[in-house]
Amino acid sequence: MPLKITLKPKEQMIIDGAVVRNAGLTANLLIENDVPILREKDILTETDAHSPCRQVYFVIQLMYIDEQNLSTYYDAYWKLVKDIVKAAPTLVGFVDQINEHILSRKYYQALKLANQLINYEEEVLQDVCKSVATV
User: Fold this and answer.
1) Which of 92, 110, 90 is closest to 100 using CA atoms?
2) H or E stretch at 21
3) What is the per-residue burial (b if ≥16 Cβ within 10 Å, else e) of 40-54?
4) Is the pTM of this model over 0.85?
5) 79-111 pLDDT per residue, tens
6) How many CA atoms lie within 13 A of 73 on its CB side?
7) Residue 100 DSSP one-character state
8) φ, ψ for residue 34, nearest 5 deg
9) Sign of CA dihedral 117, 41, 62, 34
10) Rounded distance, CA 102 to CA 61, Å?
11) 113 and 93 in contact (C-beta within 8 Å)?
């Protein structure tokens, strides 16, 4: 079953490693086969990967769109999650869920969980900032 995607003007996406930008008005695409697809809102640039959890997301994103260099990304991923779990052991269950998707090569599902990890990280940082501000 084809996947129908509507692109807004100037909206960008990655389809099987190719960066595609809509140069005109709203466009409808039908993706006929199973390929990695990331919409603009789901793309994280390297410069925006400025925290440990964002770096995890970025590396998984690379696994998803650039399967030819998986071994490099796997090495980076396992080092990152090892450091995260060492710093925050309560995240081990969360990271284990992401690991299961990584090992099953379900990178899009791993990205969704990594996004939740980023949200959690941001909540923790906001709480820390509030605590510091009240001291």
Assistant:
1) 110
2) strand 18-21
3) bebebeeeebeebbb
4) yes
5) 999 999 999 898 999 999 999 999 999 999 999
6) 20
7) H
8) -90, 100
9) positive
10) 11
11) no
